[in-house]
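Anyone up for a design puzzle?
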């Protein structure tokens, strides 16, 4: 056997040094100067960033252009220089140890790009920045126990489309928390169950574009726990322009109507106020508004939802209350009120039902 040992060593060495695959995730820092993402010489890790890598843009002299749609990076950290995203897509999935999207300095030019952030355990988004399209994707992540967190002092402004998407009905909804906030200047969409927000530091999306915006929920129209079309809390605050509601929209957090025109007639639509495990058991609806179809659904957390003082929610279509037979009572309280101009239905059973002192006027 000894006479074969040198050959085995040589062959093993050849395999290790000749293999083109990248065995481990790396930290890749962009060089100074005007450089392109898809050029090996741009990066000190000696390869174009790939799945799981941590990308760093920290040199003051760096002008980096994203000239290719990236693989799923582990993290992105920018503290200096300029990053031009052009019209491409960058995806960050939190697969590395740092688990972060951070922009603490430099110039971030979103142009017509799309940034995709996938849920991962204890993932944090830090730094106020303006995006074109921003997508949060749930791939059966850890849920409410380790949500995506928008850090304190961070405002994510989205001029294009803000999308909350779930990839399969076999997962529960994703979770995204504050204390930071999101400002939506363009359209907002949600598919399947979308993203909920937690009981601690719930996140609010402020809808404040000056032109027309469309808030689109799930297309199935099912009120079945898998197609809620959910987004976190909402504050509608439009000084000009119209917000169009479309399809089945779920609200997992607080709902505030401050200002603006809301169109409920152009598209068929339903707004459901949802209470699921991991979300807050105390919720508020404030601001008088007319909606088409409205539902209240409790998935066994027995919430207390308060209609704030001075609030009247008018429902022109069907008003639905949905509980589960194994749940306790949910409470819907005033001092605000509901006005039902259409039918009222309940799909409750056993111990699951809606109680409370809210006044419902039939008109």
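Challenge accepted. My sequence:
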């Amino acid at each position: 056997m000894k006479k074969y040992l040198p050959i085995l060593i040589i062959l093993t060495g050849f395999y290790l040094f000749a293999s083109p695959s990248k065995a481990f995730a790396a930290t890749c820092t962009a060089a100074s100067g005007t450089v392109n993402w898809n050029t090996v010489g741009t990066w000190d890790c000696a390869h174009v960033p790939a799945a799981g890598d941590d990308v760093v843009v920290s040199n003051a002299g760096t002008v980096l252009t994203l000239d290719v749609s990236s693989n799923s990076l582990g993290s992105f950290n920018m503290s200096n220089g300029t990053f031009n995203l052009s019209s491409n897509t960058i995806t960050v999935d939190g697969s590395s140890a740092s688990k972060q999207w951070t922009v603490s300095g430099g110039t971030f030019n979103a142009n017509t790009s799309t940034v995709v952030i996938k849920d991962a355990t204890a993932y944090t988004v830090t730094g106020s920045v303006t995006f074109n399209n921003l997508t949060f994707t749930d791939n059966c992540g850890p849920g409410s126990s380790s949500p995506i967190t928008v850090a304190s002092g961070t405002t994510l402004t989205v001029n294009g489309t803000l999308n909350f998407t779930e990839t399969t009905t076999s997962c529960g909804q994703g979770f995204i928390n504050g204390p930071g906030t999101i400002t939506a200047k363009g359209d907002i969409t949600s598919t399947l169950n979308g993203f909920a927000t937690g009981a601690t530091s719930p996140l609010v999306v402020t809808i404040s574009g000056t032109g027309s915006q469309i808030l689109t929920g799930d297309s199935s129209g099912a009120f079945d726990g898998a197609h809620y079309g959910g987004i976190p809390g909402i504050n509608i605050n439009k000084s000009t322009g119209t917000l169009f509601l479309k399809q089945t929209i779920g609200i997992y957090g607080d709902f505030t109507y401050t200002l603006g025109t809301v169109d409920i007639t152009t598209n068929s639509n339903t707004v459901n106020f949802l209470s699921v495990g991991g979300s807050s058991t105390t919720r508020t609806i404030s601001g008088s508004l007319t909606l088409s179809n409205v539902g209240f659904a409790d998935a066994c957390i027995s919430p207390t939802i308060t209609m704030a003082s001075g609030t009247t929610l008018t429902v022109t279509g069907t008003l639905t209350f949905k509980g589960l037979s194994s749940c306790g009572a949910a409470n819907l309280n005033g001092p605000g009120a509901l006005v039902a101009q259409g039918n009222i239905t309940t799909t409750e059973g056993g111990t699951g039902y809606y109680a409370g002192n809210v006044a419902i006027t039939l008109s």
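A detail worth pointing out: DSSP finds one helix and 38 strands in the chain.
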